[in-house]
Specification:
Layout lengths: L2 H21 L4 H14 L29 E2 L6 E8 L3 H8 L10 E9 L1 H12 L5 E9 L17 E9 L6 H9 L5 E5 L17 E3 L21 E3 L8 H8 L7 E3 L22 E3 L19 E3 L20 E3 L19 E3 L12 H4 L5 E3 L5 E2 L2 H13 L2 E2 L8 E3 L15 H4 L1 H26 L1 H21 L10 E6 L5 H13 L7 E2 L1 H4 L6 H10 L1 E8 L7 H16 L5 E5 L13 H9 L3 E2 L7 H11 L4 E2 L5 E2 L4
Parallel strand pairs: 2-3, 3-4, 4-5, 5-6, 6-7, 7-8, 8-9, 9-10, 10-11, 11-12, 12-13, 13-14, 14-16, 15-17, 18-19, 18-20, 20-21, 21-22
Antiparallel strand pairs: 1-2, 23-24
């Protein structure tokens, strides 16, 4: 048959199938013959591009209910998908598959919603095993009953991969070995049995060609493949979402798998007791997924020494103790969603290039990380409760200098603490050098302290602060003793119009001018003078305080001699103290002689202040002005004082 005639014939057969689809009366035997004819005549090189797939065929024979409800045929040279397989139509399925002997183009077969008994299932498997099919998938398989031993012929197969998902076995009484040995001894490279509540799998009886095993979402336990020596070709093993509990037993399971490179143990119940015997992993294992288990810090005592990629996400790890583990080949480490309070060091991971610590409890990552992890190129640390502090600022600065790529920077890195900075992106957080440099801060504080001490010492010396402290203490003690000895006399009674404070060198002016003119003039002015009114037996300071407190005014006779007198200074201080403590206007200053500023001691700063702020009476040299002087002075000390006869001194009739 020529090429043109063969193409025309295939096109005609395709049209027949398409027409029969709408008639709903195609029989499986007719479909088999048509499939065989079309598939045998397709060019070997696939050059005929006109017929790429057959349409959806509805084959519901009125004569028999044992036909397929739907047959989906996609590119019959490569893939075939069938659904709704039951005991009623499984014979016709076997007959259909028998047409695809080795050498045919069909390589991929998918069966969906298959509900058959054990004998029918094994017959389908056996037919597929001796066909051209390489990849066989079953989605949703219900095995009804009658599981028993079956002598399966594995020889001469093109099969490479078998995938079975969602298996439901209704037979409650059968030998587990009869079921599992069918799959365990298959001579294919890849086997997947997932979501099937499988509780066990046998070790192959002889060296197995399995390179890939996937038992996702079953009920497998630590008993799986213990002491199994026949999985010598296995490279990838997926045991995710099962019920494994002991990490140590898992390590022993792998120890006999000499070529195992990848192991997925995520979403199990794994834990590790540090008291367990030493773990023993396959030396070939380079990638291990232990995420979503119950592992703690002790997991680092039970890890493969040659591991390159390690996933410990979503466990209960708080820290990595220095010296606990040495994984020289480790390149990628995922510690996300644990309980880490700081970045781990790399003393045990000298080849580490990628680290993931997102969603931990890291407040202030240590800047030492960049010194110990010199080979790290990428760091994922987002979504941690960062505390914006000097240490964090040091970390950010060193990160920029190191050249490490901070993944998701800057949008996913924000301050959590303190409260006033919450939500602030780390890139916008800054502290001054002085606030963060402890040494500089200490030196600055020390210098400021020294300067302050020096200033205070200078002021104390210059202003005679110690002298004032001493006077205040004496004032307080005198008042306390007076109150203690005469508690009934809490209110001081004025006895004098004025207390006179003067230098002994100015005593002649006081005795010859001041006292006679005030006491012997008009009125009965009573003056307090130390020579006649100080009480013997009391200290000078106590006498000064008593006289000032019993006097309405205090008259200070100022002269160069006054500022040179120590006692005059005492009297001025106590009078000034009364001025502020009683809020009274009790000071009268008489400038007897001009006082050059340079001779006034520094401790007389109060005198300087008083003379600058208060009006003082200046003793006139001209006699004609003295009458006014005495009149002003009398007016300043004018007050009625009680006398012994009950009258008031200073009263006029």
């Amino acid at each position: 048959m020529t090429e043109n005639m063969r193409s025309l014939r295939n096109f005609f057969l395709y049209k027949c199938l398409f027409a029969l689809t709408f008639w709903n009366h195609i029989s499986l035997s007719m479909a088999n013959e048509l499939f065989k004819s079309v598939s045998n005549d397709f060019p070997e090189d696939g050059s005929d591009k006109k017929i790429k797939s057959l349409p959806l065929l509805y084959t519901n024979s009125h004569q028999s209910k044992a036909n397929f409800d739907w047959v989906v045929i996609q590119n019959i040279t490569e893939s075939l998908s069938l659904s709704e397989i039951t005991n009623d139509n499984v014979k016709k399925l076997v007959a259909l598959l028998s047409n695809f002997r080795q050498g045919s183009r069909l390589q991929n077969l998918t069966l969906t919603n298959m509900s058959v008994d054990w004998n029918a299932l094994t017959e389908v498997f056996q037919t597929v095993w001796h066909s051209s099919i390489e990849d066989f998938k079953i989605n949703s398989l219900t095995q009804l009953s009658n599981i028993e031993s079956y002598d399966f012929d594995y020889s001469g197969t093109s099969m490479k991969a078998l995938t079975i998902k969602k298996v439901l076995i209704t037979d409650l009484y059968f030998s587990q070995d009869d079921l599992y040995k069918l799959f365990a001894n298959m001579n294919i490279e890849a086997l997947t049995i997932a979501e099937s509540e499988m509780i066990h799998m046998m070790c192959p009886l002889s060296n197995s060609p399995f390179k890939y095993l996937n038992f996702l979402k079953n009920d497998l336990t630590d008993l799986l493949f213990q002491n199994c020596d026949t999985l010598v070709q296995l490279e990838k093993l997926i045991l995710q979402k099962n019920k494994f509990e002991s990490l140590c037993k898992v390590s022993f399971m792998t120890s006999r798998m000499k070529l195992l490179q990848y192991l997925d143990m995520s979403n199990n119940l794994l834990s590790h007791d540090a008291a367990d015997v030493q773990c023993r992993w396959a030396e070939s294992l380079t990638e291990l997924d232990l995420s979503s288990n119950q592992l703690t810090d002790s997991v680092f005592e039970c890890l493969p020494v040659n591991i390159k990629k390690l996933n410990l996400q979503n466990n209960q790890i708080t820290s990595i103790t220095k010296g606990m583990v040495e994984l020289k080949s480790l390149e990628e480490l995922n510690l996300a969603s644990n309980r880490l309070a700081d970045l781990p060091g790399c003393s045990g991971f000298m080849s580490l290039e990628f680290l993931n610590v997102e969603m931990n409890l890291i407040l202030t990552p240590s800047a030492d990380f960049f010194q110990s992890c010199l080979r790290v190129k990428k760091l994922q640390a987002r979504c941690n409760p960062f505390k914006c502090s000097c240490e964090l600022q040091d970390f950010i600065r060193l990160e920029r200098q190191s050249g490490v790529e901070l993944i998701d920077w800057p949008t996913e890195y924000v301050c959590e603490y303190p409260e006033d900075l919450r939500g602030t992106q780390l890139k916008d957080f800054h502290l001054t050098e002085l606030a963060c440099n402890t040494t500089l801060l200490l030196v600055t504080a020390l210098l400021l302290t020294l300067v302050l001490v020096a200033v205070v010492a200078f002021l104390c010396i210059y202003l005679d602060v110690l002298w004032y402290v001493q006077m205040t203490w004496q004032w307080t003690q005198t008042k306390r003793r007076a109150w203690h000895n005469h508690p009934e006399e809490q209110e001081t009674v004025l006895q004098f119009h004025a207390f006179i404070s003067y230098s002994e060198r100015d005593s002649l002016w006081v005795k010859n001018e001041l006292i006679p003119n005030l006491e012997k003039g008009e009125g009965c002015v009573q003056l307090c003078q130390h020579e006649r009114n100080f009480i013997p037996g009391k200290s000078i300071v106590e006498n000064i305080i008593n006289c000032i407190e019993k006097s309405y005014k205090s008259i200070f006779v100022l002269s160069p001699n006054f500022v040179q007198s120590e006692w005059c200074h005492y009297e001025l201080y106590f009078a000034h103290h009364k001025l502020f403590s009683e809020n009274s206007n009790s000071l009268i200053l008489i400038l007897l002689e001009p006082i050059p500023p340079h001779i006034v001691p520094a401790r007389y700063h109060k005198l300087k202040a008083l003379m600058a702020k208060r009006t003082y009476l200046e003793w006139p040299k001209e006699r004609s002005k003295r009458a006014l002087f005495w009149a002003n002075l009398r007016a300043a000390i004018s007050i009625n004082l009680p006398m012994a006869d009950g009258q008031w001194c200073g009263e006029t009739d």
